[in-house]
Amino acid sequence: MLYGSIEAGGTKFVCAVGNEALEIVERVSFPTTVPEETMALVIEFFNKHKEELVAIGVGSFGPIDIHQDSETYGYITSTPKLAWQNYDFVGTLKESFNIPVAWTTDVNAAAYGEYVFGNGKGLSSVVYYTIGTGVGGGALQEGRFIEGFSHPEMGHMLVVPHPDDTFEGSCPFHGNCLEGMAAGPAVEKRNGRKGQDIPEDDPFWEIEAYYIAQCAYNTTLMLSPDVIIFGGGVMKQRHMVEKVHQAFAKLLNGYVRTPDLDKYIVTPALEDNAGTLGCLALARNAELHGH
Ligand code: ADP
Ligand code: ZN
């Protein structure tokens, strides 16, 4: 018996199969091009395992339609990636695999992975952000994703510009929202080089930490979660989490008592596996509930 995982990212797809213990058995990756091409590779990969495959969990870039009773449930909807606009992702999978498919956002899947196996294990309220090509956020309460008319888009929360920051922001919708100020491309645009090439002692990182700390501050006051996990490429700067702790403590100014910052604002325990493990766990749930 195998579970399938599809992490559908804006730059690459990662597909995997896992066993009953949710251990990853095989994993492959393809560039995200056009649906006809990328999905053909996805289907080819799972076809190899078709006999044993019992359910698939998908964590997708979005926005996506998550409403079970909607006509476009399972679609990627208004994404800036034109070829994927109004694309029937779940429907396409179901044409090839007549098994339960769990469908959620990429960040929800990563949040779920951390909830089941990582830094959210045993906690009831878990928030996960990725600070990468974009900024995305997902929140879980007692094992369920927080959502309403749609899934949250916490990466686009407004932030207050740092006094030393003259960057106008790079979000095409909002300019200086969190994503527009702090995602990888904003880091690169402001500094003329990629985040991975900016040394640890560059004063820019204090500015970056200020935005991520505002995100933690807003999250704390709105949700009072048990843990806030920051993943994604930018958080590979290992010094960043400590800088975020300091900026966060200053912003919050003792207004509420949070858990110990070392346990409260953290990076993913599963590192780059959070999404895949989350999708496998969601596939297992889908199989149990027969969706
Ligand atoms: P994606 O968001 O596409 O899934 P990532 O989370 O890896 O992928 O994010 C990619 C972004 O993170 C790029 O803008 C890249 O420059 C930035 N990035 C990757 N590694 C680092 C690093 N070590 N330090 C700072 N920024 C990084
Ligand atoms: Zn925005």
Automatic annotation (TrEMBL):
Broadest EC class assigned to this enzyme: transferase
Keyword DNA damage listed: no
One Pfam family named in its UniProt record: ROK
Cofactor(s) of this protein: Mg(2+)
CDD domains linked to this entry: ASKHA_NBD_ROK_BsFRK-like
UniProt GO MF annotations: ATP binding; fructokinase activity; metal ion binding
Reaction catalysed by this enzyme: D-fructose + ATP = D-fructose 6-phosphate + ADP + H(+)
Superkingdom to which the source organism belongs: Bacteria
InterPro entries: ATPase_NBD (IPR043129), Carb_Metab_Reg_Kinase/Isom (IPR051804), ROK (IPR000600), ROK_cs (IPR049874), ScrK (IPR054618)
Entry annotated with the keyword Transmembrane helix: no
EC number(s) per entry: 2.7.1.4
Keyword terms: ATP-binding, Carbohydrate metabolism, Kinase, Magnesium, Metal-binding, Nucleotide-binding, Transferase, Zinc
Family: Belongs to the ROK (NagC/XylR) family.
NCBIfam families attached to this UniProt entry: FrctkaseScrK
Listed name of the protein: Fructokinase
Organism: Enterococcus saccharolyticus subsp. saccharolyticus ATCC 43076
Species lineage: Bacteria, Bacillati, Bacillota, Bacilli, Lactobacillales
